[in-house]
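User: Fold this; tokens only.

Assistant: Input:
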Amino acid sequence: MSEPLTLYKLIILYMLEKVDFPLTNAQISGFVLDKGYTNYFHLQQAISELIDSNLIEAKTIRNSSYFQITEQGEQTLSYFGDQISDGIKADISAFFQENIIQMREELSAIADYYKGEEEGWQVRCRLKKRDFPMVDLTIAVPTEEAASAVCLNWKEKSQDIRVVYQQKDSLAKKENPVAFSLSDEGLIWMGEYDISIDDLLAGNTGTKKETKLEKAKKLILELLGKRKMMCLEELEAELQAYEISARTGRDARKDLEDQLIYGWYQSRKTISLKKDS
């Protein structure tokens, strides 16, 4: 084995040992090739020989390869790691410091698809936060093209809103799509989401669907803004005309209590906006 190839292998082992998550072929190549340490073919040869020697393990999901260092690889690095110059180690540290957040994000969203047992294709979509599984769902799509599109958009939209769309309704009535997103605080449930299946597969964005409670609060403020004062029973009748139940109306008024004022007019309870609302 040539000495340069040995150095390339040690660089790969050193990179994998410095992180607590797998690195993709593209991430390793991005660093090594950008620094001009070697060319693509020598790098792939080094990776292949590391796998054959059981110094790293590889996992392939669709077109992406993920690498992790093995226990044997860690032992090898402990024996020969001093052959890596301090300059190269500094370059690796700087690379991780600059790109670690983006690299983690790239690995937080994983999607793969396979042929269904009966018909269509199954797409498995997963989201992880520091190796903790937050979302793991499998959905059915009619064609391989649709499955590929879902996988692509799942990865590309890792920091955006995720939508779960019911494809079949043979066993139960069809429900509206629902959405969620991930933030530093964890999973944020958004509820019903307005988007078509065509827009979803194309990667287009939708809008959060207005809940009945949100709609009720909006209507209350609009009606009182126009009429200044209303009988409470009149307001409830207006809300019911928009298919908002009395209970939802009460909840809406409770949420808006800091903006509302109640009174009486001819033995009927009234409601109006406070002057500073």
